[in-house]
Amino acid sequence: MIRLLLSLLFGGVTALLLAFLQSTTPSYAILTGPIETAGLQKDTVSSRTFSVKVAKVLRTKTIAFAPYGKSIERQTEGVWLIVSVELQSNYDTMTIQAAAIEGASGRLYRQSHRADGAPRLMPSKDLQPGLPTTGIFIFELPEGETSDMTLVLSRQPSPQLDSEIRVKLDGASVETRDRVEIGANGV
């Protein structure tokens, strides 16, 4: 009788222990998610694969650029956010395929395709190891999202077991202009 009670007690404790372990184990998505590195706008933020330094952040209602000699002007109901950066790869040639702004609500706003063809866009540039590369990212987002922003960069969308850099943007240093002209020399 005592053996039966001890077996039942041991089985119950084992079941409780397994239930506890299952409830505290992170999900597969968390275990294989991005390897995040966070920093502030004033700093150079370095991950295992690349580093970024935010040089300037501009906010505007109108952007203008001239790809292939034809002048294009784009306006928005929200705001355009132009982030000028310096990027450097640490080990191999790569491109930054995924860039987003995390707004005040926590939503992610990916790069705007309405600005495709603008000079100095970073997604069109290769990063070479040891050679700093400068360029811009252009985002279109609602004005209410600009009070608290984070720049999120990675080599690929939804990185798994790969570097992701999150740069907290300083709202006080965001320059506001009515119109921004993007040229070969930047903004």
Question: How would you describe what is shown here?
Answer:
The longest helix has 23 residues, at 2-24. The protein is mainly beta. It starts with a helix and ends in a 5-residue tail after the last strand. Helix content is 14%, strand content 41%. Strands 2, 3, 4, 7, 10 and 11 form a 6-stranded mixed beta sheet that branches. A 5-stranded mixed beta sheet has the order 1-9-8-5-6, with no helix packed on it. The chain has one domain: Immunoglobulin-like.
Shape verdict: elongated
The N- to C-terminal Cα distance equals 84 Å
Rg: 23 Å
Helix and strand sequence: HHEEEEEEEEEEE
Main sheet overview? 6 strands, mixed
CATH class: Mainly Beta
The fold-level CATH name is Immunoglobulin-like
DSSP strand tally: 11
CATH architecture verdict: Sandwich
Helical content (DSSP H or I, runs of 4+): 10-25%
What order do the helices and strands come in, and which of them pair?
Elements: H1 2-24, H2 28-31, E1 35-40, E2 44-46, E3 50-65, E4 72-89, E5 98-102, E6 108-110, E7 133-141, E8 150-154, E9 163-168, E10 175-176, E11 179-182
Parallel strand pairs: 1-9, 3-10, 3-11
Antiparallel strand pairs: 2-3, 3-4, 4-7, 5-6, 5-8, 8-9
